[in-house]
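Help needed: design a sequence for this.
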């Protein structure tokens, strides 16, 4: 798996640029909602402290003078986090507890999460799909846009109204926690089960952790909110890796995690 992480660009030298990551760190410190992704930090994070944390959690350079090039994610940190991720899946599967799975990166990560949904369902966990088709207004850098909450193979995502899933573009990219909040509110209003574990990225994992739900997920080196959530105890596991490589490169991760969790796909 370590060799695959490096060969696929999931860890090691990744496509995420240093300039992009440092810009995100500054925006996090400034309180930009798109970078906070639903997290309300408990501490007053300074830029240098955040840079140091990202070095510890991801393996990126903590040197503020290094301002260009590509980020480096430590594959050993990724492997350790994948092991912890699998352990949380094993625990929830042993209980047969309900889970909610969602992604802001459906064009890359749908297959990864769908494999987890299948494995957890086979183990007796209810994979929840509340608020199917619900409209959500999300503020983007282009203004407020309306999306619909949809589920594909048990994985939640947002889609523009009237759009249909395709192999190349199953859904829209988003950092917003509003889809997660919409799903949880619908589940509560229906009197149905609430998730014992939320699995995802971006606003799904940060939004869930902020609301007190156990959350685990994937995060790139330019997603500081997920790692701050982990450092502050509201995200159980944050797996550092590049979240925009080819979708088929994540298939070995699905098998690795399911095997480690003793789950079948």
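Sure. Designed sequence:
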């Amino acid at each position: 798996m370590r060799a695959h992480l490096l060969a696929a660009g999931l860890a090691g030298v990744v496509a995420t640029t240093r300039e992009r990551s440092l810009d995100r760190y500054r925006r996090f410190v400034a309180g930009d909602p798109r970078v906070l992704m639903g997290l309300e930090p408990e501490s007053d994070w300074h830029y240098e402290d955040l840079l140091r944390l990202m070095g510890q959690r991801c393996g990126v350079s903590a040197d503020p003078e290094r301002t260009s090039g590509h980020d480096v994610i430590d594959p050993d940190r990724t492997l350790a986090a994948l092991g912890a991720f699998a352990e949380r899946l094993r625990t929830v599967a042993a209980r047969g507890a309900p889970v909610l799975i969602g992604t802001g990166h459906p064009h890359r990560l749908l297959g990864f999460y769908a494999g987890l949904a299948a494995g957890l369902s086979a183990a007796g966990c209810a994979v929840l799909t509340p608020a199917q088709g619900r409209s959500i207004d999300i503020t983007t850098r282009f203004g407020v846009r309306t999306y619909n909450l949809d589920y594909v193979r048990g994985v939640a995502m947002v889609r523009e109204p009237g759009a249909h899933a395709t192999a190349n573009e199953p859904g829209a990219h988003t950092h917003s926690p509003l889809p997660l909040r919409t799903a949880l509110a619908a589940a509560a209003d229906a009197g149905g089960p609430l998730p014992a574990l939320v699995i995802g990225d971006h606003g799904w994992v940060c939004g869930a952790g902020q609301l007190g739900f156990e959350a685990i997920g994937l995060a790139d080196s330019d997603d500081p909110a997920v790692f701050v959530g982990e450092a502050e105890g509201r995200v159980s596991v944050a797996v550092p890796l590049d979240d925009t490589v080819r979708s088929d490169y994540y298939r070995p991760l699905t098998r690795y995690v399911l095997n480690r969790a003793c789950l079948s796909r």
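The beta strands are 12-17, 70-73, 99-102, 135-140, 143-152, 155-159, 197-200, 215-219, 237-240.
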